[in-house]
């Protein structure tokens, strides 16, 4: 037992922040070498190191919190602030891409034909697959809220079912988007339309994959009885992130798919 | 210490998971399968929970109590040893904090505003 007079967690030294930073370096430089030299060694190394870091660091956090009880109320409060600030920073990240989109589309340049969508671009019909892809995150927002309430009420089986459903919906969204990307009549190289479309929806898709993984990882502690009805911050963080991802899609759909078509 | 605790709780977690039918009935049986903090909290979190239930705050999580600072109602300063540093913000919004060591025994007064401070022993659950 720690002989401290405060309720905070003074963490022990660990190598995982360092390996995480190294993997970030390897992945970014690896991406660049892949684009230029078509070699994937650095990228592969970086990704492996990233997976190792994630596994080890989050395993360590579970040990410190669930098994050792270091996550007192003030510690949890700090973690909540951290997650909120992180999601806020991601909101600003997407604001940048929306800014780029509106900058180009509100006053289309003469080279585009003076109109939006630019001449020669056949945009995707917003009332086909994109509309389904809007219903899916909305439904998964419902299922994740259902899961949260189940956990708070101590109902294990419904929580398991609704969390699994959320993950499945997330995977369904990714699959549908992948199919749309494959079938789209325009590419990233098709001027500013293609660029803003694929960069914005592409980063969103990446965040969906991250959110789905986060939720999948929550299933594991849940099946091992780690969560209590009052203390389940890992799940709260995943649910917040998931809602953020769904809201970004709504903005994307309305701006790029609907207004922009 | 922590390693022993981890081993013990990891072993317990692993064995309960393997024998799913029986623990599923006893674990969180009143709430439907998900344990409560009462049943599952451990370590410092459990200490804090237990103390809060008894009305105590050994880890100073809550805001300190307000005192008048007079001779009859001095500021009571808890300490785990026999002295503690006090920082007195004599008037609201003062930017100069008056720092001094408060020793056990008779109440001391802030050298700037004269408020009374008294050291009181503070018990830590071990």
UniProtKB/TrEMBL annotation, chain A:
InterPro entries associated with the record: Cyt_c/ubiquinol_Oxase_su3 (IPR024791), Cyt_c_oxase_su3_dom (IPR033945), Cyt_c_oxidase-like_su3 (IPR000298), Cyt_c_oxidase_su3-like_sf (IPR035973), Cyt_c_oxidase_su3_a-hlx (IPR013833)
Compartment(s): Mitochondrion inner membrane
Keyword Transmembrane tagged: yes
Reaction equations catalysed: 4 Fe(II)-[cytochrome c] + O2 + 8 H(+)(in) = 4 Fe(III)-[cytochrome c] + 2 H2O + 4 H(+)(out)
Membrane topology (UniProt): Multi-pass membrane protein
Cellular compartments per GO CC: mitochondrial inner membrane
Record Pfam families: COX3
Predominant location: mitochondrion
Keyword presence, Transcription: no
Domain Heme-copper oxidase subunit III family profile as annotated: residue spans: 4-261
Key words of the record: Membrane, Mitochondrion, Mitochondrion inner membrane, Translocase, Transmembrane, Transmembrane helix
Example GO BP: mitochondrial electron transport, cytochrome c to oxygen
SUPFAM superfamilies: Cytochrome c oxidase subunit III-like
Oligomeric and partner information: Component of the cytochrome c oxidase (complex IV, CIV), a multisubunit enzyme composed of 14 subunits. The complex is composed of a catalytic core of 3 subunits MT-CO1, MT-CO2 and MT-CO3, encoded in the mitochondrial DNA, and 11 supernumerary subunits COX4I, COX5A, COX5B, COX6A, COX6B, COX6C, COX7A, COX7B, COX7C, COX8 and NDUFA4, which are encoded in the nuclear genome.
Function, in words: Component of the cytochrome c oxidase, the last enzyme in the mitochondrial electron transport chain which drives oxidative phosphorylation. The respiratory chain contains 3 multisubunit complexes succinate dehydrogenase (complex II, CII), ubiquinol-cytochrome c oxidoreductase (cytochrome b-c1 complex, complex III, CIII) and cytochrome c oxidase (complex IV, CIV), that cooperate to transfer electrons derived from NADH and succinate to molecular oxygen, creating an electrochemical gradient over the inner membrane that drives transmembrane transport and the ATP synthase.
Family, as annotated: Belongs to the cytochrome c oxidase subunit 3 family.
Protein name per Swiss-Prot or TrEMBL: Cytochrome c oxidase subunit 3
Organism from which the protein derives: Monopterus albus (Swamp eel)
Gene coding for it: COIII
Automatic annotation (TrEMBL), chain B:
GO molecular function, one term: metal ion binding
Sites of N6-acetyllysine modification: 65, 83, 118
UniProt cross-references to InterPro entries, sorted A to Z: Cyt_c_oxidase_su5b, Cyt_c_oxidase_su5b_sf
Localisation per UniProt entry: Mitochondrion inner membrane
Record bears the keyword Membrane: yes
GO cellular component: mitochondrial inner membrane; respiratory chain complex IV
A Pfam cross-reference name: COX5B
Statement: the UniProt record of this protein carries the keyword Metal-binding: yes
Top-rank taxon: Eukaryota
Keywords carried by this UniProt record: Acetylation, Membrane, Metal-binding, Mitochondrion, Mitochondrion inner membrane, Transit peptide, Zinc
PANTHER family attached to this UniProt entry: CYTOCHROME C OXIDASE SUBUNIT 5B, ISOFORM A-RELATED, CYTOCHROME C OXIDASE SUBUNIT 5B, MITOCHONDRIAL
Name of the molecule in the record: Cytochrome c oxidase subunit 5B, mitochondrial
Organism: Monopterus albus
């Amino acid at each position: 037992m720690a002989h401290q007079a405060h309720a905070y967690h003074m963490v022990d030294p660990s190598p995982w922040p360092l390996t995480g930073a190294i993997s970030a370096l390897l992945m970014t430089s690896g991406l660049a070498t892949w684009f230029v030299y078509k070699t994937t060694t650095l990228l592969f190394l970086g990704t492996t190191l990233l997976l190792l870091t994630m596994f080890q660091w989050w395993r360590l956090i579970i040990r410190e919190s669930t098994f050792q009880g270091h996550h007192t109320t003030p510690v949890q409060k700090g973690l909540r602030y951290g997650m909120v600030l992180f999601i806020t920073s991601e909101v600003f990240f997407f604001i940048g891409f929306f800014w780029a989109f509106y900058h180009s589309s509100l006053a289309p340049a003469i080279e585009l034909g003076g109109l939006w969508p630019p001449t020669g671009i056949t945009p995707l019909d917003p009332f086909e697959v994109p509309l389904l892809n809007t219903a899916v995150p909305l439904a998964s927002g419902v299922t994740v809220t259902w899961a949260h309430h189940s956990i708070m009420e101590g109902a294990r089986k419904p929580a398991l079912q609704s969390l699994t459903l959320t993950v499945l919906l997330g995977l369904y969204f990714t699959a549908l988007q992948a199919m749309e990307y494959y079938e789209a009549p325009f590419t990233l190289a098709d001027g500013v339309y293609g660029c803003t479309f694929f960069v914005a929806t592409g980063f969103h898709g990446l965040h969906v994959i991250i959110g789905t993984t986060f939720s999948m990882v929550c299933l594991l502690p849940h099946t091992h009885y780690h969560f209590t009805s009052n203390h389940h911050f890992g799940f709260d963080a995943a649910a917040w992130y998931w809602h953020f991802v769904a809201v970004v899609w709504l903005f994307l759909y309305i701006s790029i798919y609907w207004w922009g078509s | 210490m922590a390693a022993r605790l981890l081993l013990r709780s990891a072993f317990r977690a692993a064995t309960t998971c393997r024998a799913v039918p029986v623990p599923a009935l006893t674990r969180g049986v009143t709430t439907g399968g998900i344990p409560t903090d009462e049943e599952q909290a451990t370590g410092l979190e459990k200490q804090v929970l237990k103390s809060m239930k008894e009305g105590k705050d050994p880890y100073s999580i809550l805001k300190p109590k307000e005192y008048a600072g007079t001779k009859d109602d001095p500021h009571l300063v808890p300490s785990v040893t026999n002295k503690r540093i006090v920082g007195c913000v004599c008037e609201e919004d003062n930017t100069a904090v008056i720092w001094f060591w408060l020793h056990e025994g008779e109440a001391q007064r802030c050298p700037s505003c004269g408020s009374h401070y008294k050291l009181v022993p503070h018990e830590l659950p071990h």
